[in-house]
Amino acid sequence: MCRRPWWGPGPWAADHLVLEPVCRLDRDGHGAFLGASIDKLGRRKGWLALVVMTMVPAIFAMWWGKPDGSGLSVTAIMALSLLIGVLFSYSEVLHNSLLVRAAGLESAHKASGLALALGNLGSVSALIFCAWAFALPGHVAWSFVPAKPLFGLDIVMHEHERIVAPIAAVMFAIGAIPLFLFTPDAPHSQVPALKAFSSGASELWRMIKAMKGYREAAIYLASRMFYYDGMTALLIYFGIYSAGVMKWGRWNC
């Protein structure tokens, strides 16, 4: 007997396709605003710590998205997804602003590439572990795969899938520790935070008004935004197509 995912590909995809453009517009706009204000804020680690301490429990909370409706509602999950996406954009602006201070101008590109490679290594390692420990048990008869998901996770309640959220939250928290311990912060600024944000908003507005003189750059930025939204939509629809048309996946008979 095959089992269909409790969320269903249709509703999940529709929600995500609605949420993703809104999330991207929101985080891109706020990210640009924060980027325009960042140099006037002075120290960044305090702001980054606030973002991380908000993101970690928000990611962990996805564990309570239960199939029987006793946990988080779909609306709450969508709101958390939006919050996490926006905060992630903030974290990118904040930690990228510390890159040159940590690695130096000449080595910044090497440090950035190395960090991205290590991050990908960690994510792929976590993916392999989750597949071995939670996703494959009970579905394949391979000798090196456990017969049941580890830690006694309940397949009926999709705990073997929901466990990904706590794992991601813990990995994110642990990965942030070296940044706070070893990365030099920007010097203290005498500019109050409210004034820094106000000045950043003014500069951002002046830049937007000046975009008519940089038509090629404006076209590139808009195209890049729609490209990423389109790529996300394609990835989602590939999943729908493979499950609904090609009948791939363990929930199809």
Structural summary, described in words:
The chain is mainly α. The protein has one domain (9-201): Growth Hormone, Chain: A (Up-down Bundle). Helices cover 69% and strands 0% of the residues. The protein has helices at 9-41, 45-60, 74-96, 99-103, 108-135, 159-162, 164-182, 193-209, 215-244. Helix 1 runs parallel beside helix 3 (74-96). It is globular, with a radius of gyration of 21 Å. The N and C termini lie close together (7 Å). The model is unreliable at 1-15 (pLDDT under 50). InterPro entries: Atg22-like, ATG22/LtaA_families, MFS_trans_sf.
What layout of secondary structure does this protein have?
Layout lengths: L8 H33 L3 H16 L13 H23 L2 H5 L4 H28 L23 H4 L1 H19 L10 H17 L5 H30 L9
Helix pairs in contact: 1-3, 1-8, 1-9, 2-3, 2-7
